[in-house]
């Protein structure tokens, strides 16, 4: 696999090509190597050469990731999980960027990077254990160089920057990648991370999955300019990539990581994608967005796009696709059975490890909650 890029130096927006087509004046530049119809196109600054096996591997990654994500959503609806944040529609952004990392790179995710976790070797069952409430993460971050999920919006960008500054001082030949969403780009923590990373030339890639919606707030109500252009104000380059094009995401992210680890400092990647489902299973997107919008993005589906390319170029046959489908069903079954076999979380455990020496208010709340829990047992005995 080889990637060629000349994106190492900051550049000013200009009229150029986007997926082989003329870009209109003022339109944000978008790196694309695979059109929604599954046609390969060239880009003047990014190119990638993958073997048939690697291309099939990317397809398999996306299908399996979508499958266990769908299973997790179903499990939450059945009461087996407390919550779930689906990645539906963002598989290319996550698999492409995840496969661009090296084993010695370090990843700082949010709470939706299930596809990146898959690429880093984290078992999906461990992800679901956290959302069931039976563990506080379920994996050793240092085993896969994949940090625990971060619920606090945007704070992981500061963690990533600090870690990157540390490995830079250690002289390590590796890079850090920090994931966040378009909503998090409005957080002060992200701006602070940009400042520190730029000033200290930290080897970190800021990877923004712009899925168009920060819960119910559209991107256009958060930023006057495309998110990738914000990097220029902090003194480092930014690039917008078609987030539903797994080939382009892989090429751009790999180039950005090389930019960082070669001593040229941070870089911002904006993966322009779409959240096909709800923000989380507690959200109802029909209250704030139109069905027509989702339908438009369904035609840009990252998995169907790559499958079309594989079929047209004879890279994969029906036997391959059937095999991946069977594997995905087996994965769904394994995840489902593993989650249902997990113990129920102890409701009283939420009061543990709050204060080292205890606290009167916590003790009072614990007693009230215990009484509330006991009321259910009393009502059951009466029937």
Note down, in words, how this protein is organized.
The chain is an alpha/beta fold and 383 residues long. Helix content is 44%, strand content 11%. The protein is built from 13 helices and eleven strands. The protein has helices spanning 52-77, 91-98, 114-119, 124-132, 141-144, 155-170, 188-199, 230-234, 246-264, 291-298, 302-312, 318-340, 360-381; strands at 2-5, 17-18, 21-22, 46-49, 106-108, 176-181, 204-210, 213-214, 217-218, 238-242, 267-272. The strands form four sheets. It has a five-stranded parallel beta sheet with strand order 5-6-7-11-10, sandwiched between helices. A two-stranded antiparallel ribbon has the order 1-4. Strands 2-3 form a two-stranded antiparallel sheet. Helix 1 (52-77) packs across helix 2.
E-strand count: 11
| Average residue-wise pLDDT | 91
Shape: globular
Helix content: 40-55%
User: What string, H for helix and E for strand, traces the elements in order?
Assistant: EEEEHHEHHHHEHEEEHEHEHHHH
Which class best fits the helix and strand makeup? alpha/beta
Separation of the first and last Cα atoms: 66 Å
Low-confidence stretches: 1-22
Give the tags.
383 residues, single chain, five-stranded parallel β-sheet, two-stranded antiparallel ribbon, alpha/beta
Brief characterization of the structure:
This protein has helices at 52-77, 91-98, 114-119, 124-132, 141-144, 155-170, 188-199, 230-234, 246-264, 291-298, 302-312, 318-340, 360-381, and strands at 2-5, 17-18, 21-22, 46-49, 106-108, 176-181, 204-210, 213-214, 217-218, 238-242, 267-272. It is an alpha/beta fold and 383 residues long.
């Amino acid at each position: 696999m080889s990637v060629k890029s000349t994106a190492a130096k900051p550049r000013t927006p200009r009229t150029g090509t986007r997926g082989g087509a003329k870009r209109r004046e003022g339109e944000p530049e978008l790196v694309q190597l695979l059109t929604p119809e599954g046609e390969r196109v060239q880009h003047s600054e990014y190119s990638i050469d993958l073997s048939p096996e690697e291309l099939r591997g990317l397809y398999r990654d996306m299908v399996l990731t979508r499958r266990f994500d769908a299973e997790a959503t179903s499990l939450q609806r059945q009461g087996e999980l407390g919550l779930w944040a689906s990645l539906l529609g963002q598989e290319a952004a996550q698999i492409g960027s995840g496969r661009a990392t090296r084993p010695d790179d370090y990843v700082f995710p949010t709470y939706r990077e299930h596809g990146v976790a898959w690429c880093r070797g984290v078992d999906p069952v461990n992800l679901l254990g956290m959302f069931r409430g039976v563990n506080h993460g379920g994996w050793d971050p240092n085993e896969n160089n994949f940090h625990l999920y971060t619920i606090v919006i945007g704070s992981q960008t500061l963690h990533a920057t600090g870690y990157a500054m540390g490995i830079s001082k250690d002289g390590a030949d590796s890079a850090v990648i920090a994931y966040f969403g378009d909503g998090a780009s409005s957080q002060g923590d992200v701006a602070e991370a940009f400042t520190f990373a730029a000033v200290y030339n930290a080897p970190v890639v800021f990877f923004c999955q712009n899925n168009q919606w920060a819960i119910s707030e559209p991107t256009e109500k958060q930023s006057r300019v495309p998110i990738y252009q914000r990097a220029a104000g902090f003194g480092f380059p930014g690039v917008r990539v078609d987030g539903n094009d797994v080939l382009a995401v892989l090429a751009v992210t790999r180039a950005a990581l090389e930019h960082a680890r070669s001593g040229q400092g941070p870089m911002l990647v904006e993966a322009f994608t779409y959240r096909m489902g709800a923000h989380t299973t507690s959200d109802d997107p029909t209250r704030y967005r139109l069905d027509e919008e989702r339908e438009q993005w369904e035609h840009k589906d990252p998995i169907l796009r790559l499958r079309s390319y594989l079929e047209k170029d004879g890279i994969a046959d029906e036997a391959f696709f059937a095999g991946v489908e069977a594997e995905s069903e087996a994965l769904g079954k394994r995840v489902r059975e593993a989650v249902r076999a997990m113990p129920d979380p102890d409701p009283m455990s939420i009061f543990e490890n709050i204060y080292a020496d205890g606290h009167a208010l916590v003790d009072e709340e614990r007693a009230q909650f215990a009484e509330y829990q006991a009321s259910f047992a009393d009502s059951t005995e009466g029937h």
